[in-house]
Amino acid sequence: MLRIRAFETAAIRAADEKLVLGAIHPSVGQEAVAAGVCAPLRRDDLLLSTHRGHGHTLAKGADAAAMMRELFGRDGGNCGGKGGSMHIADFSVGMLGANGVVGANINIAAGAAHGVKLRGGDQVVVCIFGDGAMNRGPFLEGLNWAASFKLPVLFVCEDNGWAATTSTRAVTGGPGPAARAEALGIATAAVDGNDVLAVEEAAQALVESLRSGGGPRLLHARTYRLLGHTSVDKAAYRPAGQAEARWADDPIRRATDLLLGAGVAQNVLDADAAAATAEMTAAFEDAKAAPWPPVSAAYDDVQDIGAVAAPAGL
Amino acid sequence: MARLSYREAGRLAIAEAMRADPTVWCLGEDLGRGGVFGQYAGLEAEFGPDRICSTPISESAIMGAAVGAAMAGTRPIVEMRFADFALCAVDELVNQAAKARYMFGGQSKVPLTVREPMGMWRSSAAQHSQSLEAWYTHIPGLVVIAPATPEDNYALLKAAIRNDDPVVFMEHKNLWDMEGDVADDATAEIGKARIACAGGDCTIVSWSAQVHVAMQAAAELADDGIDAEVIDLRSLWPWDEAAVAASVAKTGRLIVTHEAVGVGGFGGEVVATIAERHFASLRRPPLRLAAPRIPISYAPELENQVRVTARQIVAAVRRLN
């Protein structure tokens, strides 16, 4: 969680300094969902994420320096600088991609699980999406698909209350994602998404049931997006005082209090936080100094048949 | 050598690909019962319901699941039932399948083949008749194939399944029953045109069912002593510019005819390319013969308004010659 917070803090600074050029969607305040859900996963388990996916990607085990280079659009980024924040992926740790289209990862996750099942594997697939995604068609189609074929997918609705800049509640019929999933025959669990131990415990139980062939599950994790939709969004549309009040429920503060209560010394926690900050500051400086990708890379990895050639001289 | 229908040829290609590679599987609506056109008949009995997967009517999930399954190490064959219905899955095909390899810096390919039955078959109206092949040629990452004969349906479908790119494979619904000789282990290279009929007086470029209309026109013209060369492009991306250019160098005349709407159709790309790069070969202005920009009707006489007939092609060639 500290590493995710430090990564997001460095990424926001880079966006402010125009070093990260495209939009980024910070997950500050939502770190417990990423850390808790990914804790019980094996390296070869698969994860599909969202446009707000830095935390999920780090928690799945991706290299922070390569991620930072990707955000900067530099050579050595996970995707060679061709994807950026919203298309970050690290297949070496089973992270099959963030997605720039809300809800699009749901069908892909169901299909990845279908592929795993056809090949006789025992991996599970985790699909994290936001509360806004439950109003897109793939939520119905993908959950129904996973239920029909009894696929090992853990759907995680990371509910931060905001669909971009609109209150999700204002544009959503019915009681929410769990009720919709249960209507499709998918068992659900609800958890305080700012309580990292509760998230991990819930995810552990759900992953075990998936691993034993129990069919898909949905975890509804309520959290809060402490910052705006993007790094430049001041979120002035939120009711006065809402975000300020929610800082009291900051998942990192809560985890810190828990550890202090369990007898961990403050200086140990301070050292952890300092190490996370140092790692991400180094990633920032590394990315800033990294070269741009070769321009010829714009023509690479389009397709095997019918790829257009790079202009002469590139 | 076997005498097969266009439908049977496609089915044979799938059966052989599935026998050779256990990661190949098919997903789509009603496949267990053979698919809506019988193009999967008997396959469930041989391969079982896991690999001939009958799905809910969820085009978005069918295509999206295929993307995920392809990234998880399988080679899905996606059945869209009608090219028109594939529009429910455009995000999954265009934003996801076509771009995943590129966006993720080459970490994964997306080897899937999407079968999209296309084109007019009598009185199916505006949502079951369209030819939308040009849309997909516009999308980097996709391969687009539109076979005209049973042998090409067999050979190109096998090539599509073997290929690691997402392939939009558009079979024409009016050709399902067409029979032809299919050589054992026939092969075809994606991107290579077929000279359907050689001639030195005018080049007629087409693909899919319209090739057969062009062949009728060529037969009529031959009676008048005009030798048209009919080129079946077979695939639209990549398309065989060299074959068309070589033909036009010989004939000096170019007509492109297709069943799709002319505006924004792929005929425009062929004509523009020849005009830009091979202008000196042209002795007459090139022509496109395609559908007017109106939806396809139900009533036969109205529907006929969007058909380009052999007679129209013959008249156009005569004007050029």
Question: What is the fold's blueprint, element by element?
Answer:
The complex is a heterodimer of chains A (314) and B (321).
Chain A: H1 2-16, H2 31-38, E1 46-48, H3 54-59, H4 64-72, H5 104-118, E2 125-130, H6 137-148, E3 153-159, E4 162-163, E5 166-167, H7 177-183, E6 187-192, H8 196-211, E7 217-222, H9 242-247, H10 251-261, H11 266-289
Parallel strand pairs in A: 1-2, 2-3, 3-7, 6-7
Antiparallel strand pairs in A: 4-5
Chain B: E1 2-5, H1 6-20, E2 24-28, H2 43-51, E3 52-54, H3 59-71, E4 75-79, H4 90-103, E5 113-115, H5 133-137, E6 143-145, H6 150-162, E7 167-169, E8 179-182, E9 194-197, E10 202-206, H7 210-223, E11 228-232, E12 235-237, H8 241-251, E13 254-261, H9 266-277, E14 287-291, H10 300-303, H11 310-320
Parallel strand pairs in B: 2-3, 2-4, 4-5, 5-7, 6-7, 10-11, 10-13, 13-14
Antiparallel strand pairs in B: 1-8, 6-12, 9-11
Helix pairs in contact in B: 1-6, 3-4, 7-11
- Describe the strand arrangement of the main beta sheet of chain B, using strand numbers: 3-2-4-5-7-6-12
CATH class wording of chain A: Alpha Beta
Average pLDDT confidence of chain A is 97
CATH superfamily of the largest domain in chain B: Thiamin diphosphate (ThDP)-binding fold, Pyr/PP domains
Number of domains of chain A: 1
Give the termini separation of chain B.
39 Å
Mean pLDDT over the residues of chain B: 98
What is the radius of gyration of chain A? 20 Å
Which stretches of chain B of 5+ consecutive residues score pLDDT under 50? Answer: none
Q: Structural class from helices and strands of chain A?
A: alpha/beta
Outline type of chain B = globular
Overall 3D geometry of chain A? Answer: globular
CATH topology name of chain A = Rossmann fold
